[in-house]
Write a structure and sequence with these properties.
Blueprint (H helix, E strand, L loop, with lengths): L1 H24 L9 H18 L4 H23 L4 H21 L1 H4 L5 E2 L5 E2 L2 E2 L3 H24 L1 H11 L1 H6 L4 H27 L1 E2 L6 H14 L4 H13 L11 H22 L15
Antiparallel strand pairs: 1-4, 2-3
Helix pairs in contact: 1-6, 1-9, 1-10, 1-11, 2-3, 2-4, 2-9, 3-9, 6-7, 6-9, 7-9, 10-11, 10-12
Length: 292
């Protein structure tokens, strides 16, 4: 039972990550491969605050969201003035830089040894410690993320994002502040990703830089592509498929080393299949194809 609850918690965490990235990839046409960096910012801010200042969980969550949003602005303001492949390279550089900082700033982040003993959340005197309690917390934050993202995409601002995705030059010619809108949604995506980082850090009670690598960013992109770009429900479907499906390998009886390699092959194979034959994913509304 606890194993099933653990899988559901992970699905909730990756649903938050994929919904936040879908705002960029699916609705705005911005392909970022630095999402795991913002995920890590949220986790490390919450962990460091809890470990060194013993500050309340909700305050740590708020501070993590603000910090990730600020980092999103720092990366987005210069990077979003360039387009397509050049922007992808810029986000790749930020992902690598973030990992290097987390890995080498030993006195602050713990370096490769990470941060153990992260306190579990306490909200209004109630300590969240069991799997079912964490599932409820994760579910509530995932519902909030979905609701908030849905409010954005249904608003006039969301319609402007879709216009930028379809034809950025035309949107700019129509008097829209394209760069400003892209920076704003990039900050929102980064801030929402940090929520997943806070949950992960307090749930596992230990973090290290290997949880926030380039491969993790690619995995989150895979969830968006397979679930469906420009469809928030598709992000949840993708999270269920890519988190739950590989877990079936545990019941086959394969050694962990072999199962891990098969998981990577499965992720890669699914990604190739969907990009070739169904680029809009399971229930997506936007095909991730090269622009003319």
């Amino acid at each position: 039972m606890e194993y099933l609850l653990h899988i559901l918690i992970l699905i909730g965490i990756y649903s938050i990550l994929s919904i936040s990235l879908n705002l960029l990839v699916g609705y705005t046409g911005i392909l970022s491969i630095a999402h795991a960096a913002f995920y890590g910012v949220g986790a490390y801010v919450a962990a460091l605050m809890a470990l060194h200042l013993d500050s309340p969980f909700l305050f740590n969550l708020f501070l993590a969201v603000v910090a990730a949003g600020v980092f999103g602005a720092v990366v987005g303001i210069p990077s979003l003035r360039i387009k397509d492949d050049y922007f992808v390279i810029a986000t790749f550089a930020f992902q690598i830089i973030t990992f290097s900082i987390l890995n080498n700033l030993v006195n602050f982040t713990g370096g490769p040894l990470g941060l153990p003993g992260i306190p579990q959340p306490e909200i209004f005197g109630f300590v969240i410690s069991t799997h079912i309690e964490f599932l409820i917390l994760t579910g509530l934050l995932a519902v909030f993320t979905y609701w908030f993202a849905n409010k954005i995409v249904k608003s006039p601002f969301g319609r402007m994002l879709k216009a930028i995705r379809e034809d950025e030059v035309f949107a700019e010619a129509a008097g829209k502040h394209v760069v400003e809108a892209k920076v704003k949604i990039f900050m929102v995506g980064a801030a929402l990703a940090s929520i997943a980082g806070v949950i992960y850090a307090t749930y596992i009670t230990y973090i290290d830089p290997t949880s926030f690598t380039l491969m993790e960013s690619i995995f989150i992109i895979s969830i968006v592509i397979i679930g469906g770009a420009a469809n928030l429900r598709g992000s949840i479907v993708g999270a269920i498929v890519l988190v739950a499906l590989p877990e079936l390998l545990r019941f086959v009886g394969l050694p962990n080393s072999v199962a891990a390699n098969i998981r990577q092959m499965l992720y890669g194979g699914l990604l190739i299949i969907f990009m070739l034959w169904r680029p809009q994913g399971f229930i997506g509304e936007y095909k991730l194809e090269p622009k003319e």
